[in-house]
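>> received
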Amino acid sequence: MTETVGRDYIVQTQLPGYDKEAGWLNADERSAFIAKNKLRFLRNYQRKALNAIQDAVAEGSTRFLCEMATGTGKTLTSAAVIKLFLRTGNARRVLFLVDRLELEDQAAKAFKDYLKNDYATAIYKERRDDWRKAEIVVTTVQSLLFNNKYKRLFSPTDFDLVISDEAHRSIGGNARAVFEYFVGYKLGLTATPRDYLKSFDASKPTTRDPREQERRLLLDTYRTFGCDSGQPTFRYSLLDGVKDGFLINPVVVDARTDITTKLLSEQGYAVMVPAGDEGQQEQSFVSKDFEKKFFSQATNELFCQTFMKNGLRDPVTGEFGKGLVFAVSQSHAAKLTQTLNELADKLWPGKYQSDFAVQVTSSVPDAQQYTINFTNNNLLGSANFNALYKTSKARVCVTVGMMTTGYDCPDILNLALMRPVYSPSDFVQIKGRGTRKHNFLEQLFDEDLKPLINEPEKTRFKFFDFFANCEYFEEKFDYDEVLRLPARASEGDGQGGEPPPPLAGVYEHTGADAIHHVAEQQIGYEGMKIDRMFFEKFEDQVKADPTLQQQVENEQWEQAIDYVVSHLFDKPNDHFNLDKLRRAAGVDRRLSLKEILQKIFGLIPYFKSKDELLEDEFQEFLLANQSRLAEDQGAAVLAMKYFFKAYASDAALRAIIDGKRFGELNVNPAFGVGDLRAVPPEWRQQIPEYVKDYVSLNQFM
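>> returned
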């Protein structure tokens, strides 16, 4: 397992000798060459994932867990792992387990695209008689479970490596028996953050709270892969992806109606309902009753109107950006689909003819194919507004559970939660449907129009929240509670719904509803609380340590820093280190451990941004040099500040200035010749000298 894994590890299989092709050797043609041949180069973090598995194998491990955010290429990483195990002889055949039919097709197609020149891939149900001829076998876990097929038709040694996609789901419950049946190496993949997970005491009574079930299920996933401490073999979070420029944080649209505001309140929505023969009694409904016991068509219509009024538009045609709507149940999905189509017909008469929104749930024939067509931009047709722009005619898929996990559609611009969510895992998975980047020019075949598109790159997506789910996971959800394993529920339809409510206690609101408020918030580098629990876990440990408390109180910073490094960093249970804490803190500069401790113990209110620190440093510079500043240089202070900040924070610019390579400023996008000329001549040398002598540059890296 010591084989070197370069960034072209997959490309060497896709197109052997690619680096000798004319299209590659010509730098001007290289991008087109890569796109034409669909070459997939590994990113640095994907290579690190493989290196981590190699290290684990060297240490004697046979089980591994890769925790990677949605949109960071788990399937490509899996392909590289498969190639690594097959090439090194550590596996002869690989089983790739999924828990949904659409993921089965998706994975098989990807493996064929990446590895077909070296290895054969088969979907088991399509090759029941000759699956042994393939080195990679893809199947749903349900297929092997049916009638104990995995025991009757397979030997425990048929697969030397078993990979479980979306591991927090596909090895839960009875499916775990399939996973454990086969001997050899086991790899789990999951996009669900682990920072808020706690241990459960299975000896205590359990409840049916869905949050408990989700967290217990996820914990079992970690134990399955030998990660009892909750630390995976490799981790790459949403925050990592956003900071590295691979993923996008949402613009949260908090939209509440008068009715949902009451449903979300402590008192609930109170109404008088019949009781007995002629009497009445007050009954209160809460958010979880919506579309189960409490029904309001006016509220559903308001959801859809708000969604369509405020949703992002496609940057090429201006039509409504592709979106996913998550409903309470299949019947609720049908109502929302109809309402969206009626609204679309009014906004664009004759343009969609009820094809604007499509219900994608298990009760709909060909629902799986709908998900594929939506990704491929041909759901119910395409190019509805521009014949040379291949984007799906259907703009919105309304679902319940089918499209929450593992669904890959990078050009999604609008997500809507028209239901409350109580599972942190579900919330993260749904949010992840929008985090992928995308270039909309990929579907545009009009070369004259391409230069005219103002914003061809996807830089944001809107996340409509009609039930204050974001607020719930930010402010109210208790991430530290120890939840009990719920009683095993009967198998449902896979849609995440619940059994129909009893007729008693059902209320239908027939009046009007109105928007209570709509507020938009761009989520920054710091992410949501659900994404940054790693830092808060460290904070709790630091505050509880009496030695650290005393050292900080006495301002013994060197001792405190040494104590953290030796007693808290890189321990088996948590694997804290300074780099991970910096990422989890979500600040756009390099934090010192002293700053982190100061923030934890309340000595500073918050972490200042890079610009705030630069502003402070420049004010110190002005104070130190106020006697030397000429009276007529007031107008030049802004130019001096810009130079000061750029020189202090940009290592490349410092090299240009210090090396007197001023000609390079003509092509420097951040600080040009004109910017330098605006600085008074006497300060062009004095500012760099001051920065070198008095400013700590490490904090701006």
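>> The radius of gyration is 28 Å.
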